[in-house]
Amino acid sequence: MAQLELSVRPATGADLEAINRIHGPEVLHGTATWDTEPWTLDQRREWFSHHDAMNPVLVAEHQGEVVGFAYVTLVSQKAGWRFTREDTIYIDERFRGQGVGDLLLGALLALLRELGVRLVIASITSTNTASIRLHAKYGFEVMGEMKNAGYKFGQWLNTTYMQVDLGEPSPGKPTW
Fold first, then answer.
1. What values do phi and psi take at 121, rounded to 5?
2. C-alpha angle with apex 121: 101 to 170, nearest 5 degrees?
3. What is the pTM of this model?
4. Other residues' Cβ atoms within 10 Å of the Cβ of residue 4
5. Which residues, 6 or more positions from 53, have their beta carbon under 8 angstroms from its beta carbon?
6. Cα–Cα distance for residue pair 102/131, rounded to 1 Å
7. What are phi and psi of 175, to 5 degrees?
8. Measured between alpha carbons, how far is 52 from 138 in angstroms, rounded to an integer?
9. Which three-class secondary structure string do you get for 124-156?
10. How many CB atoms lie within 10 A of CB 129?
């Protein structure tokens, strides 16, 4: 299989339909998300409005088409948590296993280091071994598993929590 030509960039409002196109099938047929109804474009716009330079959304493109996206969210609104984020990655089902997730996670972590984020966590459906392997490749360690934490498609689902410590922010990084 030929190597895909991929690029990563910050998402814009123009990418929201593509983001929904990627997310929707996982809602309807997969367990990487525990959403049970596809998002409307208005919901996606509202979601996007809560992301900024400190909580970025990135997209991966192949030949001008968005084929994956990754983002982080605050773990808590409490000020003491401001250096911790949770990452999320979704890949278009046609492009899975072709390095898109690897490129997105690497770019996201590099950006978070630049921003002065200290800790990144991931909550991954425990049967999603590809995502667990990808995160482990970038130094994420398993913190534990919550059993029967979610319910979808008539089954109880476990979630594996992973974390990576990006290290002490460099002097001059944001202290928000």
1. -115, 160
2. 95
3. 0.94
4. 14
5. 115
6. 10
7. -110, 0
8. 24
9. EECCCHHHHHHHHHCCCEEEEEEEEEEEECCEE
10. 11
Secondary structure (3-state) at 102? helix
Q: What is the C-alpha to C-alpha distance for residues 38 and 43, in angstroms, rounded to an integer?
A: 10
| Cβ(55)–Cβ(73) below 8 Å | yes
DSSP bridge pairs for 145: 160
Token duo for residue 132: 């667990």
Tens-of-pLDDT digits for all 176 residues of the chain? Answer: 557 899 999 999 999 999 999 999 999 999 999 999 999 999 999 999 999 999 999 999 999 999 999 999 999 999 999 999 999 999 999 999 999 999 999 999 999 999 999 999 999 999 999 999 999 999 999 999 999 999 999 999 999 999 999 999 887 766 66
